[in-house]
Write the C-alpha coordinates for this entry.
Amino acid sequence: MVGATLRDISRHVDCLSAPGGPYAVVCGRTGCEPHPVSGRRFDDRDTAAEAAEAAAEYRATLRQYDPQVPFYEPLVHDVEDTPPGVATTGDADPRFRYLEFCHNVAGATFEALSDASLREVETAAMETYLTLAEVVEDRDDFCLTMLWSVTSELALRADRNQRAHVVDAAAAALRGPNAPSTVGPDEALRATIETLERVGFVDANSVAVGAGSDRWRVTFGDYALAERTGRLPTLPLSVALAKRLPQTNFSFTAATPVGEGRWQLAVELDETPDGLVSVDATDDARLYETDSTY
Protein backbone atom coordinates (compact mmCIF):
# COMPACT_ATOMS: atom_id res chain seq x y z
CA MET A 1 0.00 0.00 0.00
CA VAL A 2 0.96 3.65 -0.33
CA GLY A 3 1.95 3.94 3.33
CA ALA A 4 4.64 1.28 3.07
CA THR A 5 6.25 3.04 0.11
CA LEU A 6 6.13 6.43 1.79
CA ARG A 7 7.54 4.96 4.99
CA ASP A 8 10.43 3.28 3.16
CA ILE A 9 11.32 6.52 1.38
CA SER A 10 11.20 8.49 4.64
CA ARG A 11 13.41 5.93 6.37
CA HIS A 12 15.90 6.16 3.51
CA VAL A 13 16.04 9.93 3.96
CA ASP A 14 16.53 9.47 7.70
CA CYS A 15 19.47 7.13 7.02
CA LEU A 16 21.04 9.72 4.75
CA SER A 17 20.60 12.60 7.18
CA ALA A 18 23.18 13.78 9.69
CA PRO A 19 22.12 16.15 12.50
CA GLY A 20 24.12 19.34 12.21
CA GLY A 21 25.22 18.62 8.63
CA PRO A 22 26.02 21.65 6.47
CA TYR A 23 23.61 20.88 3.60
CA ALA A 24 19.83 20.94 3.21
CA VAL A 25 17.33 20.43 0.40
CA VAL A 26 14.99 23.29 -0.46
CA CYS A 27 12.67 24.18 -3.30
CA GLY A 28 14.33 26.73 -5.55
CA ARG A 29 10.96 28.33 -6.31
CA THR A 30 9.46 28.60 -2.83
CA GLY A 31 12.38 28.27 -0.41
CA CYS A 32 10.46 25.54 1.43
CA GLU A 33 11.99 22.33 2.74
CA PRO A 34 9.42 19.78 1.54
CA HIS A 35 8.51 16.66 3.45
CA PRO A 36 10.25 14.20 3.91
CA VAL A 37 13.48 16.25 3.76
CA SER A 38 12.06 19.04 5.92
CA GLY A 39 14.35 19.69 8.88
CA ARG A 40 16.91 17.15 7.66
CA ARG A 41 20.60 18.02 7.24
CA PHE A 42 23.26 16.17 5.26
CA ASP A 43 27.02 15.80 5.43
CA ASP A 44 27.81 16.45 1.76
CA ARG A 45 26.26 17.57 -1.50
CA ASP A 46 26.08 14.09 -3.01
CA THR A 47 24.14 12.73 -0.04
CA ALA A 48 21.81 15.75 -0.08
CA ALA A 49 21.26 15.23 -3.81
CA GLU A 50 20.26 11.62 -3.15
CA ALA A 51 17.82 12.85 -0.51
CA ALA A 52 16.38 15.32 -3.03
CA GLU A 53 15.73 12.45 -5.43
CA ALA A 54 14.04 10.51 -2.63
CA ALA A 55 11.81 13.49 -1.88
CA ALA A 56 10.80 13.66 -5.54
CA GLU A 57 9.96 9.94 -5.43
CA TYR A 58 7.88 10.46 -2.28
CA ARG A 59 5.81 13.15 -3.95
CA ALA A 60 5.48 11.12 -7.15
CA THR A 61 4.01 8.28 -5.06
CA LEU A 62 1.35 10.60 -3.64
CA ARG A 63 0.75 12.05 -7.09
CA GLN A 64 -0.36 8.61 -8.32
CA TYR A 65 -3.48 9.16 -6.21
CA ASP A 66 -3.81 12.94 -6.39
CA PRO A 67 -2.36 14.83 -9.37
CA GLN A 68 -2.73 18.06 -7.40
CA VAL A 69 0.24 17.26 -5.14
CA PRO A 70 2.37 20.42 -5.46
CA PHE A 71 5.57 20.22 -7.48
CA TYR A 72 8.88 21.36 -6.01
CA GLU A 73 12.21 22.20 -7.61
CA PRO A 74 14.65 20.62 -5.12
CA LEU A 75 18.03 22.27 -4.75
CA VAL A 76 20.93 21.36 -2.51
CA HIS A 77 22.36 24.29 -0.61
CA ASP A 78 24.68 25.10 2.22
CA VAL A 79 22.59 26.02 5.24
CA GLU A 80 24.93 28.94 5.89
CA ASP A 81 24.41 30.40 2.43
CA THR A 82 21.21 30.82 0.45
CA PRO A 83 22.10 30.64 -3.26
CA PRO A 84 20.75 33.18 -5.76
CA GLY A 85 17.19 32.52 -6.82
CA VAL A 86 16.15 30.66 -3.67
CA ALA A 87 13.21 32.31 -1.95
CA THR A 88 13.18 32.69 1.82
CA THR A 89 9.53 33.36 2.57
CA GLY A 90 7.85 30.35 0.98
CA ASP A 91 5.15 30.26 -1.65
CA ALA A 92 2.58 33.02 -1.13
CA ASP A 93 -0.15 31.14 -2.99
CA PRO A 94 -2.78 30.15 -0.38
CA ARG A 95 -3.92 27.24 -2.54
CA PHE A 96 -0.37 25.85 -2.61
CA ARG A 97 -0.08 26.05 1.19
CA TYR A 98 -3.49 24.41 1.66
CA LEU A 99 -2.73 21.51 -0.67
CA GLU A 100 0.69 20.99 0.86
CA PHE A 101 -0.66 20.92 4.42
CA CYS A 102 -3.32 18.34 3.54
CA HIS A 103 -0.88 16.10 1.68
CA ASN A 104 1.76 16.33 4.39
CA VAL A 105 -0.67 15.29 7.14
CA ALA A 106 -2.25 12.55 5.01
CA GLY A 107 1.10 11.20 3.83
CA ALA A 108 2.63 11.17 7.31
CA THR A 109 -0.49 9.44 8.65
CA PHE A 110 -0.30 6.73 5.99
CA GLU A 111 3.37 6.27 6.90
CA ALA A 112 2.44 5.91 10.57
CA LEU A 113 -0.31 3.38 9.80
CA SER A 114 2.11 1.23 7.86
CA ASP A 115 4.80 1.50 10.51
CA ALA A 116 2.27 0.43 13.17
CA SER A 117 1.15 -2.53 11.02
CA LEU A 118 -2.40 -1.16 10.90
CA ARG A 119 -2.85 -2.59 7.43
CA GLU A 120 -6.63 -2.91 7.74
CA VAL A 121 -6.98 0.80 8.47
CA GLU A 122 -4.59 1.78 5.70
CA THR A 123 -6.31 -0.42 3.11
CA ALA A 124 -9.79 0.75 4.10
CA ALA A 125 -8.71 4.40 4.00
CA MET A 126 -7.29 4.07 0.50
CA GLU A 127 -10.35 2.18 -0.73
CA THR A 128 -12.61 4.86 0.74
CA TYR A 129 -10.55 7.57 -0.91
CA LEU A 130 -10.52 5.92 -4.34
CA THR A 131 -14.30 5.45 -4.16
CA LEU A 132 -14.96 9.06 -3.16
CA ALA A 133 -12.43 10.45 -5.64
CA GLU A 134 -14.58 9.14 -8.49
CA VAL A 135 -17.37 11.54 -7.59
CA VAL A 136 -15.30 14.56 -6.46
CA GLU A 137 -15.84 17.35 -8.96
CA ASP A 138 -13.20 19.85 -7.83
CA ARG A 139 -9.68 18.44 -8.23
CA ASP A 140 -8.50 20.64 -5.36
CA ASP A 141 -10.77 18.59 -3.10
CA PHE A 142 -8.83 15.38 -3.74
CA CYS A 143 -6.35 16.21 -0.99
CA LEU A 144 -9.14 16.90 1.50
CA THR A 145 -10.89 13.68 0.47
CA MET A 146 -7.69 11.73 1.12
CA LEU A 147 -7.33 13.37 4.52
CA TRP A 148 -10.98 12.75 5.42
CA SER A 149 -10.75 9.09 4.33
CA VAL A 150 -7.76 8.28 6.52
CA THR A 151 -9.33 10.20 9.41
CA SER A 152 -12.65 8.37 9.08
CA GLU A 153 -11.17 4.87 8.90
CA LEU A 154 -8.72 5.53 11.73
CA ALA A 155 -11.61 6.64 13.93
CA LEU A 156 -13.64 3.57 12.98
CA ARG A 157 -11.05 0.79 13.00
CA ALA A 158 -8.37 1.73 15.57
CA ASP A 159 -8.57 1.91 19.33
CA ARG A 160 -7.63 4.97 21.39
CA ASN A 161 -4.03 3.89 22.01
CA GLN A 162 -3.48 3.08 18.36
CA ARG A 163 -4.88 6.44 17.31
CA ALA A 164 -2.60 8.25 19.77
CA HIS A 165 0.41 6.31 18.47
CA VAL A 166 -0.40 7.20 14.86
CA VAL A 167 -0.81 10.90 15.69
CA ASP A 168 2.51 10.97 17.56
CA ALA A 169 4.31 9.15 14.75
CA ALA A 170 2.86 11.42 12.05
CA ALA A 171 3.78 14.51 14.05
CA ALA A 172 7.32 13.22 14.61
CA ALA A 173 7.75 12.60 10.88
CA LEU A 174 6.69 16.16 10.07
CA ARG A 175 8.62 17.68 12.96
CA GLY A 176 12.03 16.55 11.73
CA PRO A 177 15.18 16.07 13.81
CA ASN A 178 16.17 19.74 13.74
CA ALA A 179 12.89 21.13 15.04
CA PRO A 180 13.01 23.98 17.57
CA SER A 181 13.04 23.10 21.24
CA THR A 182 9.75 22.33 22.94
CA VAL A 183 7.54 25.34 23.69
CA GLY A 184 4.87 25.87 26.33
CA PRO A 185 1.25 24.88 25.72
CA ASP A 186 0.04 28.47 25.29
CA GLU A 187 2.60 29.18 22.60
CA ALA A 188 2.06 25.75 21.00
CA LEU A 189 -1.70 26.23 20.73
CA ARG A 190 -1.42 29.72 19.30
CA ALA A 191 1.28 28.66 16.84
CA THR A 192 -0.91 25.75 15.75
CA ILE A 193 -3.85 28.06 15.12
CA GLU A 194 -1.62 30.47 13.20
CA THR A 195 -0.43 27.60 11.00
CA LEU A 196 -3.99 26.45 10.30
CA GLU A 197 -4.94 30.03 9.43
CA ARG A 198 -1.91 30.49 7.16
CA VAL A 199 -2.68 27.35 5.15
CA GLY A 200 -6.38 28.21 4.89
CA PHE A 201 -7.65 25.31 6.99
CA VAL A 202 -9.53 27.68 9.33
CA ASP A 203 -10.47 31.34 9.04
CA ALA A 204 -8.33 34.27 10.10
CA ASN A 205 -10.36 35.02 13.23
CA SER A 206 -9.45 31.94 15.25
CA VAL A 207 -8.45 32.21 18.90
CA ALA A 208 -7.15 30.01 21.69
CA VAL A 209 -7.77 31.15 25.27
CA GLY A 210 -7.13 29.60 28.66
CA ALA A 211 -10.07 28.18 30.54
CA GLY A 212 -8.47 27.14 33.80
CA SER A 213 -5.41 25.13 34.69
CA ASP A 214 -4.31 23.01 31.70
CA ARG A 215 -7.54 23.77 29.85
CA TRP A 216 -8.14 25.85 26.75
CA ARG A 217 -10.95 26.79 24.41
CA VAL A 218 -10.06 27.07 20.73
CA THR A 219 -12.59 28.87 18.53
CA PHE A 220 -12.42 28.80 14.75
CA GLY A 221 -14.57 29.02 11.63
CA ASP A 222 -14.47 27.90 7.99
CA TYR A 223 -13.01 24.58 9.10
CA ALA A 224 -12.05 22.56 6.03
CA LEU A 225 -13.29 19.22 7.40
CA ALA A 226 -17.03 19.09 8.00
CA GLU A 227 -18.74 17.52 10.99
CA ARG A 228 -20.28 14.16 10.07
CA THR A 229 -22.48 11.74 12.04
CA GLY A 230 -22.22 13.88 15.15
CA ARG A 231 -18.41 14.03 15.26
CA LEU A 232 -15.91 16.68 14.18
CA PRO A 233 -12.69 15.36 12.54
CA THR A 234 -9.66 16.56 14.51
CA LEU A 235 -6.71 14.65 13.03
CA PRO A 236 -5.08 17.67 11.29
CA LEU A 237 -5.31 19.74 14.49
CA SER A 238 -3.88 16.88 16.55
CA VAL A 239 -0.89 16.36 14.27
CA ALA A 240 -0.20 20.10 14.06
CA LEU A 241 -0.35 20.46 17.86
CA ALA A 242 1.60 17.28 18.58
CA LYS A 243 4.44 18.63 16.43
CA ARG A 244 4.86 21.39 19.02
CA LEU A 245 4.09 19.36 22.15
CA PRO A 246 6.00 16.11 21.62
CA GLN A 247 6.30 15.30 25.33
CA THR A 248 2.82 16.40 26.41
CA ASN A 249 -0.41 14.41 26.43
CA PHE A 250 -3.50 16.32 25.35
CA SER A 251 -7.11 15.57 24.53
CA PHE A 252 -9.86 17.23 22.56
CA THR A 253 -12.85 16.64 24.80
CA ALA A 254 -15.78 18.19 22.89
CA ALA A 255 -16.62 20.38 19.92
CA THR A 256 -19.48 22.85 20.18
CA PRO A 257 -21.06 24.85 17.33
CA VAL A 258 -21.13 28.53 18.26
CA GLY A 259 -22.96 29.94 15.25
CA GLU A 260 -22.24 30.98 11.68
CA GLY A 261 -20.13 27.95 10.88
CA ARG A 262 -17.85 28.41 13.88
CA TRP A 263 -16.72 25.79 16.38
CA GLN A 264 -15.34 25.84 19.87
CA LEU A 265 -13.02 22.99 20.75
CA ALA A 266 -12.14 22.08 24.34
CA VAL A 267 -8.49 21.11 24.89
CA GLU A 268 -7.10 19.51 28.05
CA LEU A 269 -3.46 18.73 28.82
CA ASP A 270 -1.94 15.84 30.75
CA GLU A 271 -4.98 13.65 30.14
CA THR A 272 -5.03 10.21 28.56
CA PRO A 273 -4.88 11.19 24.87
CA ASP A 274 -8.36 11.12 23.37
CA GLY A 275 -10.38 12.87 20.69
CA LEU A 276 -7.25 13.02 18.52
CA VAL A 277 -8.97 11.80 15.36
CA SER A 278 -12.55 12.95 15.91
CA VAL A 279 -14.55 14.31 18.80
CA ASP A 280 -18.20 14.52 19.81
CA ALA A 281 -19.93 17.54 18.35
CA THR A 282 -22.40 18.80 20.91
CA ASP A 283 -24.61 21.77 21.71
CA ASP A 284 -23.43 21.69 25.33
CA ALA A 285 -23.42 25.38 26.29
CA ARG A 286 -21.00 24.82 29.17
CA LEU A 287 -18.10 24.94 26.72
CA TYR A 288 -18.50 28.62 25.95
CA GLU A 289 -19.59 30.07 29.26
CA THR A 290 -17.26 32.68 30.76
CA ASP A 291 -16.80 30.35 33.74
CA SER A 292 -13.44 28.55 33.66
CA THR A 293 -14.96 25.16 34.45
CA TYR A 294 -16.54 22.56 32.15
User: Anything to note?
Assistant: Helices lie at 2-16, 45-63, 94-115, 119-133, 142-157, 160-175, 185-198, 235-242. The chain has two domains: 2-165, 185-288.
